[in-house]
Amino acid sequence: MENLSYYEILEVSKNASGDEIKKAYRKMAKLYHPDRNPGDATAETKFKFCNEAYQVLSDDQQRSVYDRYGKEGLQGGGGRRSSGGFDDLGSIFEEMFNGFGGGGRSRQSRAPSDKFPLDMGVEMTISFKEAIFGCEKEVTFSAKTSCKSCKGTGAKDAKVTSCSQCGGRGQVHVRQGFMTFAQTCPACHGEGTMPSEKCTDCKGKSYTETKESVTVKVPAGIDNGNRLRVSGRGNMGKNGVRGDLYVTFEVQDDSHFIRNGNDIYLEVPVFFTQAILGESITIPSLMGELTLELETGTKDKQQYRFRGQGVADVHGRGGKGDMVAQITLTYPRRLTSEQEELLQKLQESFGIESKPHESLFESTFDKVKGWFK
Questions:
Q1: Whether pLDDT at 166 is above 80
Q2: In angstroms, rounded to a whole number, what is the distance separating the alpha carbons of residues 51 and 47?
Q3: Which run of H or E residues covers position 330?
Q4: Which of 35, 226, 246, 352 could form a disulfide with 87 if both were Cys (CB 3.0 to 4.6 A apart)?
């Protein structure tokens, strides 16, 4: 994987959009996440490469440099490094959780002697309203604790022997055609050792699990894929140090409002006569109601922007986004005879202006007739 391009790592094309790259990253990250592959060094390596690829391709500036100069261009300072695979909001909450094992300092994902990552992740679904205005939510999760009985080895009385399949190397070699590949040993999962006899307390897993919960304050403006770090609420290793808990958010859609970054879009149905006359109408907003002053002759898909009526920036930068009202013109489904008569009179009152196609195509008709003479 090290020799693959960032696009190949995420299995996307070079023309992939930002959303496609994000979707591919989330798929790959879930596939290779250490929590789903405990003790699998190969999966952990692939997870790191996926993170590296997403950090670059999700940043327009870095992606541009990478497309032109490759990895060497990034190493030479051509682009800035981004903060991680997801928007990490941990710094906002360090003060809340300083009491849980070590303050705001980021710890290593896994100590050399631990068989599982200390950091762990959970996903949480919240409503559109909760994301816009913020809320408090209780997170329930299962945390691993290194088994004290076997000292985290998974072996009774911590007695282990060298793996018979890989000879203690942690890897096996597989031959395919004329090529030979090194793979993580499937028997010992890369550890190089195996329990002489499984620990009766942890059943050979090297850890026990307990259900826990913590209440987190979700900030206003959080969005899909944003990640919140809760310090010291992850898994606990042999040395008694706990990792961090990462909560990744999925925001439900609203039936009327559509979010794009910090901007909010609202589709506003307008009857054709309202658009022609330029009426004033009342529309909903995140904070209540707004008055939309239609221009005379408003067109279909025309947009009206209300500054500062969008979503608060979750990082506390730049204030609020805008709300954009997009017009959708509607027409009557059927007409009464009286309405038809009125519309006919209205059209006739505009004279030649009501038939713009005639003046536009007059010369074209004469030209086409000449083609067949």
A1: yes
A2: 6
A3: strand 323-330
A4: 226
Angle at 38 between CA 32 and CA 40, to 5 degrees: 65
Half-sphere exposure at residue 268, Cβ-oriented, CA atoms within 13 angstroms: 31
pLDDT tens digits for range 82-108: 433 344 454 444 433 433 333 344 444
Single-letter amino acid code for the residue at 347: Q
What's the burial of 56, exposed, middle or buried (CB within 10 Å: 0-12/13-18/19+)?
Answer: buried
CA distance 291 to 293: 6
* CB of 137 closer than 8 Å to CB of 215: yes
**Strand ranges (E), 160-262:** 160-162, 171-176, 179-184, 193-195, 207-218, 227-230, 245-251, 257-260
Element (H, E) at 67: helix 60-75
Task: Determine if the pTM surpasses 0.85.
Answer: no
| pLDDT given for residue 85 in this prediction | 37
Ordered domains of the chain (ranges, CATH): 1-85 (1.10.287.110), 95-159+196-252 (2.60.260.20), 257-330 (2.60.260.20), 337-371 (no CATH)
Q: In Å, what is the CA distance from 283 to each residue of 31, 90, 172, 262, 308?
A: 44, 36, 66, 19, 16
